[in-house]
Specification:
Helix content is about 10%, strand content about 60%. The protein has a single domain, classed as Lipocalin (Beta Barrel), CATH 2.40.128. The protein has an eleven-stranded mixed barrel. With about 280 residues, it is mainly β. Keywords: Signal.
Length: about 280
């Protein structure tokens, strides 16, 4: 126990000492996230899925701008192949996902545009919890992001014309671990349910290992049909961004209105349905 206390104090001291060399800034930004999942289930244990995510954002003005549809933020297309290993365990792979991200640091700076390619293996374990269920999801994102503004510079996948430092950081792995709780409202027959989840993430590359972000989600959903459902929720995205040049550490909170739509084919299948967004 004494050793545990020592480790905790040491870590806190290390973070405090590091923070003293940076100017700390807290930023809040309202955003809009949407996701549509289309799923085709076979009679056996295989299923195929395509999800599309579309996100927009307000100006980064500390809630002075509340128009969450004002500026583009991100668009994603991601296919999935899943296999139901056992009733609670499902293995999934997204063989290639495409990301387009826009950013506008301030009203005085131009909009930038970045591209990214990802390959994503995933493990999902679903357990009953009363009349609801707990979902444990473990995901590894193999990411090849562009390192420059691709409006002005061409994005070259696996480029060999850059410095070793740039190449080392171009490829990274983001590790994600999510716990999701789903509970029906007034029984499953009503079609209504609530859902909450928390998901910390960590980035690992050749040159760095760091906390990336944490997402906390709370939503209410409605099963319109056996194969169709919608959700409306709030998502909080917390991240820490370091500016090494200006020595600024930004604690960023994105506050998202989240809309989710799920549709699968009508078929008796050994494959389970997907539990929720992202």
């Amino acid at each position: 126990m004494r050793h545990s206390v020592f480790v905790i104090v040491f870590l806190l001291f290390g973070f405090t000492a590091s923070a003293q060399s940076y100017q700390n800034v807290v930023r809040h930004r309202p955003v809009f996230w949407s996701e549509m999942n289309l799923v085709f289930k076979t009679k056996g244990k295989w299923s195929f899925q395509l999800d599309h995510q579309y996100r927009r954002q307000a100006e980064d003005t500390q809630f002075r701008d509340l128009n969450i549809f004002r500026l583009p933020l991100q668009q994603v297309f991601r296919p999935w192949i899943s296999y139901q290993l056992t009733k609670p365990v499902r293995l999934s792979l997204s063989p290639i996902g495409l990301w387009w991200t826009w950013n506008r640091p301030s009203e005085f700076q131009p909009t930038t545009f970045f591209q990214e390619i990802r390959v994503i293996p995933q493990l999902t374990i679903t357990k009953p919890a009363g009349d609801g269920e707990l979902v444990y999801r473990f995901r590894s994102e193999l990411r090849w992001p562009s390192r420059t503004d691709t409006l002005a510079n061409e994005y070259v996948f696996l480029s060999d014309g850059e410095s070793q430092q740039v190449l080392a950081d171009r490829f990274n792995v983001r590790l994600r671990a999510m716990l999701r709780w789903i509970k029906p409202i007034r029984g499953k027959e009503s079609g209504w349910y609530v859902q909450s989840s928390v998901e910390p993430m960590m980035v690992v590359s050749r040159s760095v290992r760091r906390f990336d972000q944490n997402r906390t989600y709370l939503a209410i959903g409605r099963r319109l049909r056996e194969n169709m459902r919608v959700e409306l929720g709030y998502l909080n995205q917390f991240s820490i961004q370091n500016n090494e040049v200006e020595r600024i550490r930004t604690f960023r909170f994105n506050h998202a209105l989240h809309v989710y739509f799920y549709l699968e084919n009508r078929r008796t299948s050994k494959a389970s349905s997907d539990s929720g967004p992202e």
